[in-house]
Amino acid sequence: MKAVRTDPAFRAYLRRFFPTMALYVILVWASPFAIESTGATGPLLWGIAILPALPLMAVFWIIGRLLIELRDEYIRMLQIRQALVATGFAMSAASAWGFLEVYAHAPHLPLFTVPILWFAGLLIGSIVNVVLERQASDA
């Protein structure tokens, strides 16, 4: 898809995404050390603990900016379908696991698992797009 490679929205997306994810990795690694080394409690503990979530929140904004900035409506539709598949996947998995926790005593998973599922769902959504595009071109 040449439009994907040349659209300035994708270049802007990548310029935003990679530094944000680098910051996320750093904060996931550094936050536990900061908590332990400072002996943080109360508001300081909460402040340090929330730090890794901030870049993830930014990534959702970055994806929203991509959708707004895309010039090609067809490419935008593909990206939106990918995000909808990801959302359906993550919310379905979270709902199902929640019921398993309540009724079948499955082990508890932290809530930050849901965005991880959503990002995995983006891969599923891209596969859905490829399959549907192939079917449409064969028709």
User: What is the SS-derived class?
Assistant: mainly alpha
Broad shape: flat
Number of helices: 6
Give the N-terminus to C-terminus distance in angstroms.
19 Å
How much strand? under 5%
N to C succession of SSEs: HHHHHH
DSSP helix fraction: over 70%
Mean pLDDT: 95
Question: Which keywords apply here?
Answer:
139 residues; mainly alpha
Q: What can you see in these coordinates?
A:
This protein is mostly helical and 139 residues long. The chain has 6 helices and no strands. α2 (8-38) runs antiparallel to α4 and α5 (73-104) packs across α6 (113-138). The protein is flat. It starts with a helix and ends with a helix. The mean pLDDT is 95.
Blueprint (SSEs and pairs):
Blueprint (H helix, E strand, L loop, with lengths): L1 H5 L1 H31 L3 H9 L2 H17 L3 H32 L8 H26 L1
In brief, what are we looking at here?
The chain has about 140 residues and is mainly α. It is built from 6 helices and no strands.
